[in-house]
Write a structure and sequence with these properties.
The chain is of the alpha+beta class. Helices cover 30% and strands 20% of the residues. It has a three-stranded antiparallel beta sheet. Strand 2 and strand 3 form a beta hairpin.
């Protein structure tokens, strides 16, 4: 999953695994969704970065790809994330970090 990018999902025909649109992900981490009053038993609304990170820990896909300036970086590098940095790829257009879910024995 590419939380900060929609184009990668479109090019790879990869679902977002129930996570919000990339623009909404940024809004959530900026705190713009904290006062949303909409709640539904059929639709989970993440109101802040803590909830977003918890959703990644509990229901995130096997691979998550972010850029080094992503709002998700602290979440992904936390010891409690359930993910480990697998590789960093650097090209002329930028750098991406690939995190893989850690399999617990």
């Amino acid at each position: 999953m590419f939380p900060d990018d929609m184009k990668a999902h479109w090019l790879l025909n990869e679902p977002r695994h129930g996570f919000p649109h990339a623009a909404n992900t940024k809004h959530i981490f900026l705190g713009w969704w904290e006062n949303i009053t909409f709640r539904s038993s059929h639709f989970f609304v993440m109101s802040n970065g803590v909830q977003y990170c918890e959703k990644i820990r509990s229901n995130g896909p096997d691979l998550i790809v972010i850029q080094p300036n992503s709002f998700l970086l602290p979440c992904m590098t936390s010891a409690a994330s359930g993910y480990q940095l697998e590789t960093t790829l650097e090209k002329l257009i930028g750098k991406i970090m690939v995190f893989r879910r850690v399999v617990q024995p």
